[in-house]
Amino acid sequence: MPSTPRLVRRLGPGRDVVAIGLDPAPWRDAYHVLLTMTWPRFFALLFAVFLAVNSAYAFLYASLGDGIENARAGSLADAFFFSVQTLATIGYGRMAPRTLGANLVVSAEAVMGMIGLAVTTGLVYARFARPTARVLFSQRAVIRPWEGTPSLIFRMGNARVNQIVEARLEVTLLTDERTAEGETIRRVRDLRLLRSEQSMFALTWTVVHPIAEDSPLRGETPESLRAKRADVVVSLTGLDEGLAQVIHARHGYGADQIGWNEKHADILSTEPDGTRVIDYRRFHDTEPIGGPGAGG
Fold this sequence. Notes:
This protein is an alpha+beta fold and 296 residues long. It has helices spanning 30-36, 39-63, 76-87, 100-129, 222-227, and strands spanning 6-10, 16-20, 68-69, 96-97, 135-137, 141-146, 149-158, 164-178, 184-190, 197-201, 204-210, 231-240, 245-254, 258-260, 262-264, 268-270, 276-278, 286-288. The strands form six sheets. Strands 5, 6, 7, 11 and 14 form a five-stranded mixed beta sheet that branches. Strand 6 (141-146) and strand 7 form a beta hairpin. Helix 2 (39-63) runs antiparallel to helix 4. It starts with 5 loop residues before the first strand and ends in an 8-residue tail after the last strand. The relative contact order is 0.12.
């Protein structure tokens, strides 16, 4: 009996979700796969396809006998490099097809080479031209008093020298809960922020969700959040002023990535001449403090 396909969807460190029963065939969404894979994997795949295609044509040329002029008889190496020259339309002028069969194979390979070059050029351009955001998210969120109210706090930083204009932030809480009918669901609740929009996001942004009476986090504890498999999902959208394109950034905090009664280390300072300094080396550091938790 064939095994059931299992697809792993990575939502963050230690927060993978296994999907069972979906069709894992990547060729049905090849364009998306090729755009989203890492650069090392992309170039490794291109190199593997290049070797595979030229090897296949090398065996085809070799099977035609003495079909390549100035090539050594039966030499797969000469047939391979002749295929490379043909596929890349290099043509050094030393080896050439001499028979009708070899010319037909060269014609087919030349067409494949033109198509392959066009597809590869389009993919590389699309990968380079795709707008991306280099936004730092603190490795841990914290729950601590803020202006006298227990609050969920994390911070973000713009790792580029540009500015993200019309930046908008949405934060949601995901928890496992049971309905009145006894069904287990993944409930999604919005977390209201002190400030969810910024006209200009240039340096850092401290995000604060007050845990007021109407907050979904009201009365929660570290144990209850772990029991509910809680996740805080952060979604940022904005306009890159240099590219004039919309960019996105997303991050998530699991229950174990939320520090209680902690605060983020101070990264702002001022030099004697008045210059303000941001020390990103401490961007992810947190320190313990005293005080109440999420409230009761």
